[in-house]
Amino acid sequence: MDAYKTPEERFEWLKTFDISYVRYFNKHWWTHARPDQLPPDSNWLVWLLMGGRGAGKTRTGAEWVRARVLGHWPDDEAPARRIALVGPTLHDVRATMVEGVSGLLGVHRDHERPRFEPSLRRLTWPNGAVAQMFSAEEPDSLRGPAFDAAWADEGGAWKYGLETWQMLQFGMRMGDHPRQVMTTTPRSCPLLKDVMAAPGTVTTKAPTRANADHLSAAFLEAVIRRYGGTRLGRQELEGELLEDNPRALWQRGMIDRARVDKRPQGLARVVVAIDPPASAAAASSACGVVCAGVNAAGHGFVLEDATLERARPLEWANAAIRLYERYNADRLVAEVNQGGDMVEAVLRQVNAALPLTKVRATRGKHLRAEPVAALYEQGRVSHVGIMGLLEDRMCLTEPGAMAGAGDMDRLDALVWALTDLMLTGQAGVPRVRLL
Predict the structure, then answer these.
(1) Taking burial as the number of CB atoms within 10 A of a residue's CB, which of 34, 229, 333, 350 is the most buried?
(2) Range of the domain at 329
(3) Are residues 166 and 202 in the same domain?
(4) Which residues contact 17 (CB under 8 A, 6 or more apart)?
(5) Cβ distance 354 to 332 under 8 Å?
(6) How far is CA 309 from CA 167, 277, 285, 343, in A?
(7) DSSP character at residue 433
(8) Is the pTM of this model over 0.70?
(9) What 3-state DSSP class applies to 327?
């Protein structure tokens, strides 16, 4: 079928077959899925599919659940009757795994589609099979229920990864051969390492380009141009799980050890830092926007990474000021190396009374970042929750190799925020002394 690329060509090809074959072909996902979207040919317990962005991971997970419930796989296993659906949050489960374009409701035909009851966090199929929704923010919600199949999505982004996975394993106790599928963009974290190392796990990969027929050509061209050949591209586009770079300024362990779940109360100062695009015309450039605070003891907290991938001046100015107001920040900190007057003018256009600190880079990026990385190493900075893109960039950044790398805007904004809060001796907050 690969020789028939257009819908018209495929339609003509299908017309050469008996109608019963065409119905069979349309009914069974395994007859037209890509090889990397099909379960491994082995006696596996866990299938870990690590794929690039847009590689078709969600469709694969949804079709696997559909086939297991309806008994469509060409094997001797009994259809699944109790299924766990686990995602980073309940919103993610509903928006992506259930109601998404490639989610469970979308892949079923009308007569076989399950009934979705959001208030009960449940889907029920006409044949009596039931799927329950769970969030990795609530590992204990998996205590008690039993399953014979599970679909876990984006495990690399789970807040309580190991705890949630362990609770799920205790529930996989129904049927003769309970199985689980995890579909995720790879991220170096304890959960994925644990899953990969476990007996019975089979790991496969699906690169973004494998799904090119179903992706925007403009999107594919843009991400390959920006990230192709980079370490980040190998992870986000090729689906490779990369270990921490030993030469990087930050390691995931130092971030994870200090992480907190909730915003602390009574912060002494809060700032929003902006690393704006190089010029007012750079509408397609990213603008780094990071909010951070410090308590009276001099411990820093990164509250939110609100970086915009593409933004015109008024767009990033409004986004930064909304963040400033939401966190009741004390001031904005903006780099003005590129178009300093423009940066201030745009911010003042939105709010003329803003307290604004203009900072100008006089040293290289890595020289500015190293003292901030030292604060993390000493355990003096905590992230409130997981900030995947920012943390990925931090753990890819080597001294002396920062210029020109993708996603540097968000890291620059982080450095400016923590430098202002912890390394410049603002009144009322003790200046942090590097050990």
Answers:
(1) 333
(2) 252-422
(3) yes
(4) 25
(5) yes
(6) 36, 10, 7, 18
(7) P
(8) no
(9) coil
